[in-house]
Amino acid sequence: MLYLIGAGLWDEGDIPLKGIEAAKRCQKVYIERYTSLWKGDLARLGIKSEDFIRRDMEENVQKVIKEAKEKNVAILVPGDALIATTHSTVIMEAKKEGVKVEIIHASSIFSAIGETGLQIYKFGKTATIPYAETEAPYKILEQNFSIGAHTLFLLDITPVRLMTCSEGLKKLLEMEAKFGKKLLSKDTKVVVFCRAGSSEKVLKYGKIEDFLGLECTLCVLIIPGQLHFAEKEYLESL
Predict the structure, then answer these.
(1) Of 66, 81, 107, which residue is a domain's last?
(2) pLDDT tens string 125-172
(3) Number of independent structural domains in the chain
(4) CA atoms of 163 and 161, how far apart (whole Å)
């Protein structure tokens, strides 16, 4: 049996009870460490685990599936178990090998953004702002604006660097300067949501220029589209 278990937003306290019980039944437990910087420690729950890095997921997943043929194996994933597309690939590969898979869901940024007061069904496509130069986030913002939808931006995470709120906003302004479709300016309103699910969270609403000095990491940025009056009232209370 192979378990894919959501580890939740911040630390081991966010893992669902069902996930903890499943992991404790497993002879092998891995914690995926590359899609997000998870702050938990499974040892505090009495669970021995090994880190699972990107290369393992992309190149050595057959090793894990082979183990799951003979014993109970768990892969814990920061946030929800199936937000990253690589984890769907694991399921498909396991099915090809006749390995049964159980999914245990958990909180993720896609559920936590409800805390901003913005209505979930009014979000459009999500984009990641990478360190590498690309037009993709700007194009997605344009598409979302065309239908009045909100845009959720995830910030890049690398093994050696976490993009800060300030860096993400500056990247967006650089895209505006380069592509010039007048989608953004320093006066554009933005929601900044950092360290969701933790006691250290930052949730603010204001102009982009208000946050150009905010060096907080583990953040998402939201550029609102057309606002319902209830959304606007909630945002202004932030």
Answers:
(1) 107
(2) 999 999 999 999 999 999 999 999 999 999 998 878 899 999 999 999
(3) 2
(4) 6
